[in-house]
């Protein structure tokens, strides 16, 4: 499964991680810019990166989907990570998530990959809906979610803050 192509867009390629990719995850999440709106709000160390990488392998094996490595189609450079993974197993609730390297911001990649992931998720029949939530101040991400057709639903308490929460159903596309 390592390196397996999950899906492609006009500019991006989502592939399964390699066990040696903790350094890429560290490059992505070692800055306050890329972590300020995430759980903990602080840059990740290599131990956390290795832990998350292991969790993505486990999620993919268990659920058939996770957060994947995001690469540029034109030159193969590492752009970030994106995917839809299980959020609440008891409710069979999946969650869209993505993070891009700072130098890749403002290029429309988040919208491109989120939209493609939504189509892929429903075509594969994982569930009939998924959610996404953001930090209350992450207006750029909220804009992306609305742009792909997600609608606001009741906010959720996540990591001590009230997170704007969005939903997309298979019939919404």
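Q: What amino acid sequence fits the structure above?
A:
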């Amino acid at each position: 499964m390592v390196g397996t192509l999950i899906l492609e867009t006009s500019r991006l390629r989502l592939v399964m991680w390699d066990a040696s990719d903790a350094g890429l995850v560290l490059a992505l999440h070692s800055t306050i810019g890329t972590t300020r709106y995430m759980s903990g709000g602080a840059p990740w160390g290599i131990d956390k990166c290795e832990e998350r990488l292991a969790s993505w392998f486990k999620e993919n094996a268990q659920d058939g989907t996770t957060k994947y490595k995001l690469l540029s189609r034109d030159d193969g450079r590492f752009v970030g990570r994106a995917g839809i993974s299980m959020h609440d197993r008891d409710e069979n609730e999946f969650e869209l998530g993505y993070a891009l390297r700072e130098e890749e911001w403002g290029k429309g990649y988040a919208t491109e990959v989120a939209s493609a992931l939504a189509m892929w998720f429903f075509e594969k029949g994982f569930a009939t809906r998924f959610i996404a939530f953001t930090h209350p101040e992450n207006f750029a991400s909220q804009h992306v979610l609305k742009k792909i057709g997600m609608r606001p639903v009741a906010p959720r308490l996540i990591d001590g803050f009230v997170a704007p929460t969005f939903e997309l159903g298979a019939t919404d596309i």
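Q: And what stands out in the fold?
A: Residues 110 and 144 are 7 Å apart (CA to CA).
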